[in-house]
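Because showing beats explaining, we let one protein speak, sequence and backbone structure tokens together, and leave readers to judge.
___
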Amino acid sequence: MDRKLRFAVIGAGRFAEECQIPGLQRHPNAEVVALCRRSRDLCEQTALKFGVPKVYTDHADVIADDTIDAVTIVTPNVFHHPIVIEALQAGKHVFCEKPLAMNVSEAREMYDIAEASGKIHQVAFTFRYTHCLYKLRQMFKKGKIGKPLYVRIQCDGWGALQSSATAAWRNQKTLSGTGILGDMGSHFFDAIRWVCGDITQVCGVLHNVPRVRPHASTGEPTPIDTDDLAAAWFETESGLKGQFFVSSITPSRPENKYIEVIGEEGALFAYLSRGQEEGLRFRHRDGDWETIDLPPEAAEGKPHALGRMMGCFVDGILRGKLNSDRDPSFLDGWKAQSAIDAVVESAAQKRWIEIGKGKDD
């Protein structure tokens, strides 16, 4: 290609400013040529800040713009499915935020249409781009811990019960589908599957603290009706057992965002960070914990995992395919959604739920 790839960002809010826009702009073969947001004033402010020439308030106008090669979708979850399908059918490459969809049926359809389109499709599982998780996976695959026995993953925080907390679309089932389960749990179910293999069954619980908060945008009193805490036990295709915990109502500490895999010969422990200091440790069954060396930039959190992720999307388009060893496609988004839906079903029915038995699993 004798020109830069042209990108549009649909849903040009705070996270687009932190991740998609700067991440794409750092790539020498990419340019962000359009932003889309319902508020024209806010969209114009962001466009001015980042030097983006075009502003839209309707995603359909973005998709109809034939000069745009690819779109990134950073909208509330409820809009992922229709916008993704419209963009793919218009011949655009598509990067979509996680969770991929509102439910597994939507996710399966998005994957099928994406595959049939021949276009590059990627989902925003950012922890794959951390040095520590990538290295942990390499060591796990090489048998560093011996026969795997158990895996556990945890993420506390976000201060949802703080008196200053406000409500947003993520706190409303009609817009997000789930709460912390989909928001952070999608990342961690993907991490488990990427490292340890497909999840075959889950048993989960969900908890919501009923409350009303002022909406971050309008100030209107807004009931919080999504899950604030999600916990699950699971089993993978190899028989590996594990536990999973994500919460927005428990105190956050750096050591409480991690993945640990335990085997007969040892254990690996990684702090799950996307921009702060990363860390990976190994302990042999007869020894003490030792720190595993990571690239020097891992200590500084640079280059940020979010930026690396966006760069890999650009590289995938230029190459004509994603890096199957690392880059998550809509297949991975669909599989994570299967686990999310299974936890929701398990919590409602109070029993183990098998994954892979339904028509969309």
Remarks:
- The mean pLDDT is 94.
- Residues 127-303+336-354 form a domain with the Dihydrodipicolinate Reductase; domain 2 fold (CATH 3.30.360.10).
- The chain is about 35% helix and 25% strand.
- The chain has two domains: 5-125+309-327, 127-303+336-354.
